[in-house]
Amino acid sequence: MLAQIFPSHRVGDFDITAISDGYLHAPLGLLSNIDLADATQMQSSAGQRPPEAIHINCYLLRSARHTVLIDAGAGGIKQWGGLLLQNLALAGVLPGDIDTILLTHAHPDHVGGLLNAAGQRVFPNAELVVHRSEWNFWRDDVHLSRASERARGNFQIARDVFESYHPQLRTFETGEVLPGVQAMLLPGHTQGHTGYLLTSAEESLLVWGDIVHFPHIQIQRPDVTIAFDQDAALSANTRSRMLDMASADQLWIAGMHLGELGFARIQRERSGFSLQYDHN
């Protein structure tokens, strides 16, 4: 059993644990469709200090047959995160124990932890699994040529990861990626942004990737987008759709930028939606 120092859920035959990689900081001015003063107030009212801090979650998924990591954090890139490996060790898991890595998408705060400072694979035995649209996007020189200077660095990081893991890399479009793990394309944030729906013994949990970056703002205000979104309008539409689904089905949610508690439910309110963390 994992040391019970990290938030965990049992979903039928699955154990899923939130493993923190630490934090990154992004100015609230990167948000659209909201005044900076309103965004700051919403963060402060929710107790989010400093208000520009974004938590980075990874999720360890264990079944009888697999030890899976969903995303790998930033790995210290841009001085973001970097705590994944020491937290995995506290949970009793070594890099060589991971046999599968499911990517939600290939932004640096999700793939940076896959390579070490020397550019070598951190998880030597893992198959890397990524949506085909995501794989194609980051490898396309046309998209690279249109990217901003900041985004060009993101392309290089993604390409280095894909090249290093290429001997054990699998792409998909739809369906189960592992037994009981259904891929859900959630486009907008990136072209191949993907969630993973775990279903076992009539229980379900959705790992929804980057549906939100500032959960206390964007769950209450789904129209609020962030500069990291490749298609802001589509991202907002996908977020609204997922909030509707999660609240209607009373799904447990796991998200890469939820707080350190890692798991939550979405509650429909008269004014929209609210976030209810699991405090167990």
Number of strands: 16
Fraction of helical residues? 25-40%
| Biggest sheet features | 7 strands, mixed
CATH topology group: Metallo-beta-lactamase, Chain A
CATH superfamily: Ribonuclease Z/Hydroxyacylglutathione hydrolase-like
Radius of gyration using CA atoms only: 18 Å
Low-confidence stretches: none
**Total number of helical segments?**
8
Q: What is the CATH C level class, in words?
A: Alpha Beta
Domains, number = 1
Order of helices and strands: EEEHEEHEHEHHHEEEEEHEHEEE
Instruction: State the separation between the terminal residues, measured CA to CA.
Output: 17 Å
Strand arrangement within the widest β-sheet reads 1-2-4-5-6-7-8
At CATH level 2, the architecture is 4-Layer Sandwich
Helix vs. strand class: alpha+beta
List the helices and strands and how they pair.
Elements: E1 8-11, E2 14-25, E3 31-32, H1 36-45, E4 53-62, E5 67-70, H2 84-90, E6 100-102, H3 108-111, E7 127-131, H4 132-138, H5 141-146, H6 149-165, E8 169-172, E9 176-178, E10 181-185, E11 194-200, E12 203-207, H7 215-218, E13 225-226, H8 232-249, E14 252-254, E15 263-269, E16 272-277
Structure description:
This protein is 26% helix and 29% strand. It has 280 residues and is of the alpha+beta class. The two termini are 17 Å apart. It has one domain (8-277): Ribonuclease Z/Hydroxyacylglutathione hydrolase-like (Metallo-beta-lactamase, Chain A). It is globular and about 50 Å long. The strands form three sheets. It has a seven-stranded mixed β-sheet. Strands 9-10-11-12-14-15-16 form a seven-stranded mixed β-sheet. It has a two-stranded antiparallel sheet with strand order 3-13.
